Amino acid sequence: MTVIYKQFKHIITEQVEREQAFLAEYKVGQHTIENPYIKLNPYHIAPLTAVVLFATTEEVAGRVTVKGKEAAGDMSFEFPKAKEHVVQVLGLYENYANQVVVELEDGSTTTLTIQTEAASEKVKAPTLINTTPEYLGNNVIFVSPTSPAMTAAYDYKGDVRWYITLNLAFDLKRAKNGRLLVGTNRLVAPPYHTTGLYEIGMIGKIYKEYRLPSGYHHDHFEMEDGNLLILTQDLPTGTVEDMCVLVDRKTGMILKTWDYKKVLPQDMAGSGSQDAHDWFHNNAVWYDKKTNSLTLSGRHQDAVINLDYETGDLNWIIGDPEGWPQEMVDKYFFTPVGDGAFDWQYEQHACVVLPDGDIMMFDNGHFRAKKKENYVPADQNFSRGVRFHINTEDMTIEQVWQYGKERGKDFFSTYISNVEYYGEGHYMVHSGGIGSLDGETCNRPPVSIKEGTGEVVYKSVTLEIKDDEIMYEMQLPANYYRAEKLSLYCQEDVLTFGKGECLGSLGVTEQMMTEVPAEEVKEVPDTYNVRVGEEEDRIILKATFEKGQLVMLILEGEENTYRYFVPTTKRPFLAMCVGTFQESDERAVEFPVSKEGLVGNLTVKLLIDDTQYDTGMSIQCS
Q: What is the DSSP string of 535-566?
């Protein structure tokens, strides 16, 4: 009998230890601009970054430049006046002897050589890149993966200039403080619900983790006051992806909740991917200050909805009205007008409210109908970015722009994807979930196709259009949830030393209150491949069970015993938006238990079918 037990430090703890180590190294010598201290990948998750430390006798400002492989590839960043200089170096090339020039305003200068290693094979090279350095300027295109790949940023030539080795999921957005907000790599429930959000500096330092009791998925939005709208759910209720919460930026605590079950029917007007568990599938949130409202995309009702921010009441719905109750159609739906072409959107993503009130989104077009007999086959279908003008007084809607329909099945993405608005006539359209199975266009998310089924080819196409001209196009051999155009350097993203914070709460994991009779305690058979991981705030059971086995995790103490039902029958997820958390073995089970509410020295036991097993280990909880 072998039960593997391992303790895991939170990445915030690991990073502060590494930070203390390199700062101690720096203090050993006298480091000037001629002899600076250099630490490549200082926080161990961003291999194409470095920090350069040195001191000057006078306060002086300066500039750092990572030299490009050609002049257009130079990336520069100014750093402020100081005597103790902490210079972030971003935009290094992988597998390259990078030349980095540090210049001070007093004329002092030095050129450093920073050799990087080759990137992981999960950092995909573009199969097509078409733009100019003049157009992209100092920006790079970030993509976050849903198939086996890494979150990465590409320059005008398609060279990767930044990537993260953590399995980070869903949208990646820059906050007002210059840092990135992105989903964590810690799973709370399959197939991709994670603990919450990381706030991470471009150098790879995680400053905060915002944790939620039922986890995070898909999208988030920074409010004017810094508080965060985060998409979540209440897992014990049995449904997912149907709630939004407002989270206090300083404490991580939930301030306000919107539950869509209060305003929408759950058993009608579904898309072809809907089931009772994932009836709405909220994949985007946008706050509009002018109307004080939330706009939300519900993939599994083919609907973009708008809620009053204060009351949560339903204001309107954009979508095909077929299948909805007539009283809702009369009150909340729009009537198409105008002389131009018009198509409703289906299983859409990434709703955006534009300055003039227009609504822009990515229309995936999956099935492109409400009834099965009218479903459009993938090889005859299309996806697109689309802009609608809505009039909420007379409840009319007009399609005023689209791009993608003309590219047909080659641009068709059953899932994920996004649009961005840069100004009138200037947009990004990212079709991130293109795929084929044995040469045939996929009519389901490619990441949901099991190994051995056939040859799956992944593809994403990211393009930018200005005044109807394509100014940028990148194609990658992977699926990516969203794309964002950002600069690597941001003046507000200042590297500060010290330990980051875990904010918010994972809540108390729901217990099974019934004690199940079992035979005497035995040793755990090796066939179950049981592993127990202890994180700073969670206990995680990993094991291999046959479908439908009855499994209970028991934490037994002198005064308290905690029992948890461990699901062994996986749901057939119809909307596998992120496949990077999937186990190759369908029998693999991962079950986390929050330490909140646990007290005492707890012996770890397992009930499997009608037998109770002792793992031989105990965990101390305060």
A: -SSEEEEEEE--TT--EEEEEE-SS-EEEEE-
Rounded-to-integer distance, Cα 89 and Cα 52, Å: 7
Domains for the chain: give ranges and CATH numbers.
Answer: 31-115 (2.60.40.3100), 128-420+427-503 (2.130.10), 508-621 (2.60.40)
CA distance 480 to 143: 6
DSSP 343: -
* pLDDT score of 242 more than 70: yes
Cβ–Cβ < 8 Å for 530, 605: no
Residue 128 burial (C-beta neighbours within 10 Å; 0-12, 13-18, 19+): exposed
Write out the two tokens for 528: 């179950």
Cβ neighbors of 217 (< 8 A, separation 6 or more) are: 170, 183, 192, 193, 194, 231, 232, 233, 240, 241, 282, 577
User: Across residues 141-156, what is the average pLDDT?
Assistant: 97
Distances (CA, A) of 440 to 181, 446, 447: 36, 11, 15
Token pair listed for 419: 């649009």
| Alpha carbon distance 198, 52 (integer Å) | 24
Peptide bond into 236 cis (omega under 30): no
d(CA 428, CA 252) in angstroms, rounded, equals 32
Quick one: how far is CA 599 from the chain centroid?
A: 33
- With contact defined as beta carbons under 8 Å apart, do 2 and 29 qualify? no
pTM beyond cutoff 0.90: yes
Residue 576 scores a pLDDT above 80: no
